[in-house]
Amino acid sequence: MKRILTSLFGVFCVLGLLAEDVQFRAQAPNRVIAGKPFQLTYTINQRARDLQPPEFNGFDYLAGPYTSQSSSTSFVNGKRSSTFTLTYTYTLMGLDPGDFTIGPASITCDGQKYTSNGVRITVLPPDQNAQPSNQSSQSGQSGSTGSTSSTSSARSGDIFVRTVVTKTNVYEQEALQVSYRLYVAGVDFAQMGNTIKLPEFTGFLKQELELGDRQFELEHYNNRNYQAVTLVSYLLYPQHAGDLKIEPAQFEAILREQVRRQSRSIFDDFFGTYENVSRSLTAPATTIHVKALPNGKPANFSGGVGQFTLTPSISTTDLQANDAVTLTIDIKGSGNMKLLKTPSVDWPEGFEPYDPKVTNNYKTTASGYSGSKTIEYLAIPRAAGQYTIPALSFSYFDIQSGQYKTLSTPEYTLNVRRAPGQAANEGEAQTYTAVNKENIKELGTDIRYINPNMPPVNNRVASSALSIKALLFLDLIVLVLAMLIYIIFRRYMRENADASHMRYKRASKVAQKRLKLAQTLLTGDNSAFYAEIEKAAFSYLSDRLRIPTAELTKDNIADLLRQKGVDNALIDQVTEVLSTAEFARYAPTSGSEKQALYDATVNIINLLENQKI
Amino acid sequence: MKLLVILLATIFAQANEQYAAGNYAEAAAMYQQVLAEQPSATAYYNLGNAYFKQGELSQSILAYERSLRLDPQNKDARYNLRFAQSRITDNITDNQAFFLSTFLSNVRNLLRQSTWTWLSLVSFVLCLAMALLFLLSSNTIAKKTGFSLAVILLVFALSSLAAAHSLDKRDTLRQEAIITQGIVTAKASPDRSGTELFTLHEGTKVRITETLNEWCNVTVGNYQGWIQSQNLERI
Q1: Would you call A450 and B19 a contact, using CB atoms and an 8 Å cutoff?
Q2: CB-based contacts of A519, cutoff 8 Å, min separation 6
Q3: Count of domains in chain A?
């Protein structure tokens, strides 16, 4: 027997160990109505004792603790599992409306102390039953919590649907939440009917919100406490400015109503007869005032409205050509993440960019999408060098401050090293392969830049300007001048020509004169005679050939005569005379020789005179 | 006078800064202030750039044209004018224009009017000198060279004179104009009810042959029609 007991004890110990950790929890409704009792329970899954409750500040302690325990054992697929629950229940009552906290309780289990969680309880004011008519006035007064009941006038039973919007004054693209909330009080609500007609939400982009577990909860509204539940909820993004109207929504509720019959049987009284009654509920229309985004949108405006932060990062700044580099930007925040444009990176020339990879990681929340959007830009540099990736900027409209904000990444400088294969200067065996020549790649065209130099302020243009009239006048003057020059020169030439002609005509006479003088010298001085003969010959030739004496030499006379067409025999004679005269001047000669020379001179002059020169 | 010069230089420098900062409208206004006092090729050129950057194609073409009137050798202005003209909608194909006349007018536009007049005068003087050489020289070679040079120089002097005269006419009559309106419809007669002949777009250069009240008879390529004068601006 003792053995069995010990073994049983052992089994229990093992079970105790197998059981999960001790769980000690406090539970109470979140919302209670003042003056109405409610229950606070402490639950523990192990045997325990010495519950020490906290102080119930703000609540009236009515009763408790009532202790109850339950245990169950089950076999599932041959596995045994057992649960044990010990519950302490207190009955409390809220006194004044407000938020209250009940601190943790403590309990002792296996010699160890455990503490429970604290509980927050909102105490709602009690119903005020006397005002059935203020319902409608309340509904018209405020748009933000605009509501109307679609109930019968009976105050006692009230059921209606409210349109609850979080904001009525929003910017374009700013998220707002619209919920349809069912309020029930005093009627026996069975379920929602199938007829639901939701508005179109024209002008909005809508996104349905997951509501999770829908449960009725107490809500104090219009001085009355209702059981309320959100039926459906949407996140709306206004797409354009202006007053956008949300049309009324139609819902159907099914209520259970007691049927009163004339013929009452005993069972009717006892069980009651109920009938399902359908009731149509209309949620009122609301108007949303949508403000346009202010002017002065930055050029790089991404379309984002909300609040964002930007975290840039780059995989490397020092890499080899043909290795990839990744620029990552992480946009975090809340707003219309879905509509954000992906900013583009201006990769420098020589980079081969790939399409950016966008990873969205955001959730729909009551304030819009929130989370992060990660954009990865991948590019592969193809040539070595220093490159700068220009700053990437991203602008959005900040709802909090009501202005545009720009986030930007820093400028990254990349050092791209030559890839090993590209290096040309390795070892002695250099091979220079032909380089692929490329034409200059035109990336874009634009006008040329302004000339920043102020032009000198002067009247040079004006002073140098020459009008056509002035030109023609000057031309005329020049023409007249030229004509004058021509006339003067012509007259001078003519006079010149006249003089030489005279001499030409008188050449023979002059020569005769000189010869006469030479004749007188035949017997006299030798040198004077020859000089006179020479002079006579030269002056005659000069006159006849119309060449100044100074330009005349013995050598060119023959040429000139030949040009004039004199026959060679005569030319020989002329040269003979001239050389004899020159030669004999300084040598002693006889009188007969002089006579011969004299005769020869007279002879050639006569002969030349007859020639047509 | 000295003060005005300094003031103009300051405005010009400020305009350059505004342009560099991308405030093209402010820059354009300042260049116009400078131009009102002192028209210059550079200021017109910069004004044209400021207009172009604002997308005002016709105004920029006007400014470039005016800049080139003052300084025909400004390569940048010529380039930018061609660039701006490449953006205009109208593609003018003048089938009747003889290629030589286009060539001649291009040659004419290479120099300023005063340059052409001076050139004409100098070449005329040289021509006369050569003529005198021909008339008075007794040397055969000198005579021959003198004669041929004189003829060439005379031709040059006369054509320079013609160029100068043509430029003078252009600058005094101001027959060339730029369409400033986005789209203009040319009519067959100078009134609104006239038959619509053809449409012209902003920036197109036209030639005004006749004016009647507020209507201008314009020629573009092979087309001729009447346009209201508020739709165009003379260069």
Answers
A1: yes
A2: A598
A3: 4
Inter-chain contacts counted by CB atoms under 8 A, chains A and B? 86
Give me the residue from A468, A482, A485 closest to B165, CB to CB. A468
The shortest CB-CB distance from A486 to any of B53, B135, B161 is to: B135
Nearest to B42 among A455, A466, A485 (CB): A455
Which residue among A447, A474, A482 places its CB closest to the CB of B49? Answer: A447
pLDDT band at A62 (very low <50, low <70, confident <90, very high): confident
Q: Decide if A76 touches B, using CB distance below 8 A.
A: no
Structure confidence at residue A484 (pLDDT)? 92
**For testing contact with chain A, the best of B4, B82, B124, B170 (most A CBs within 10 A):** B124
In a domain, A456, yes or no: no
Separation in Å, CA of A559 to nearest CA in chain B: 19
Model confidence over A20-57: pLDDT tens digits? 577 888 888 877 887 778 888 888 887 777 778 887 77
Range of the domain at A349: 301-420
| CATH superfamily placement of domain B2-85 | Tetratricopeptide repeat domain (1.25.40.10)
Residue pair B131/B150 in contact by the 8 Å Cβ criterion: yes
CB contact under 8 A, A482 and B129: yes
Q: Does the beta-carbon distance from A486 to B76 stay under 8 Å?
A: no
Dihedral sign from CA coordinates of A165, A170, A171, A175: negative
pLDDT in tens, B27-82: 999 999 988 888 888 899 999 999 988 888 888 999 999 998 888 888 899 999 98
The answer to whether A235 and A207 have CB atoms below 8 angstroms apart is yes
To the nearest whole Å, the CA of B205 is away from the closest chain A CA by 19
* Mutation site, B125, B159, B173, interface A, largest A CB count within 10 A: B125
Angle, helix A526-545 to helix A554-564, in steps of 10 degrees: 40
The token duo for A302 is 């991404």
Whichever domain contains A530, its CATH number is: 1.20.120
Q: Most A CBs within 10 Å: which of B121, B159, B166, as the mutation test of the A interface?
A: B121
Q: Can you give the pTM of this predicted structure?
A: 0.43
A156 lies in the same domain as A229: yes
Residue A17 placed within a domain:
yes
* Residue A282 belongs to domain with CATH number: 2.60.40
Q: Give DSSP secondary structure letters for A446-496.
A: -PPPP--SPPP-S-HHHHH---HHHHHHHHHHHHHHHHHHHHHHHHHHHHH
Give A410-458 pLDDT, tens digit per residue.
888 888 887 765 544 444 444 445 556 666 666 677 788 888 887 776 5
**Among all residues of chain A, which has the CA nearest to that of B82?**
A447
| Domain assignment present for A388 | yes
CA distances from B139 to A44, B3, B152, B218 (A): 140, 63, 20, 58
ipTM computed for the complex: 0.76
| Contact indicator for A285, A384 with CB cutoff of 8 Å | no
Question: What are the tens digits of pLDDT across the range A460-516?
Answer: 455 566 788 888 898 899 999 999 999 998 888 888 777 777 777 777 787 788 788
Name the residue of chain A whose CA is nearest to B154's CA.
A475
CATH code: domain B176-234 is 2.30.30.40
pLDDT at site A310: 86
Domain boundaries, chain B: 2-85, 99-173, 176-234
